[in-house]
Amino acid sequence: QVQLVESGGGLVQAGGSLRLSCAASGSIFSINAMGWYRQAPGKQRELVTTISGGGMTVYADSVKGRYTISRDNAKNTVYLQMNSLKPEDTAVYYCHASIRYGITRDYWGQGTQVTVSS
After folding, report:
1. What residues have CB less than 8 Å from 67, skipping those under 6 apart?
2. How many other CB atoms are there within 10 angstroms of residue 65's CB atom?
3. Tens digit of pLDDT for each residue in 2-61?
4. Cβ contacts of residue 76 below 8 Å, gap of 6+?
5. DSSP secondary-structure letter at 43?
6. Burial per residue of 96-110, b for 16 or more beta-carbon CB atoms within 10 angstroms, e otherwise
């Protein structure tokens, strides 16, 4: 079994910053891509950013220059530094990881609420 445990969400004023963390634990041989998705009320879940095992990153246009993804492979943890937050960044943020243990499967965190007030 694998678990992804997220932390770091909360309420912040526009222009502020938050840092999310997501730690993977359990039956893990290796972790390929890790990333963050978000879902705002009434909207579909969308990709925010991903980082490959080798450190290559992809960002949604809406967060480029404001968000930074990083990972600590020794800790099986991915981070999301969010700066210059806007009210439209308000959403539940979900951690994702592609984890290999025999076979490769996708896992999701439980989600953490990020609320940006104007």
Report:
1. 48, 49, 59, 80, 81, 82, 83
2. 9
3. 999 999 999 999 999 999 999 999 999 899 999 999 999 999 999 999 999 999 999 999
4. 23, 24, 25, 28, 31
5. S
6. bbbbeeeeeeebebe
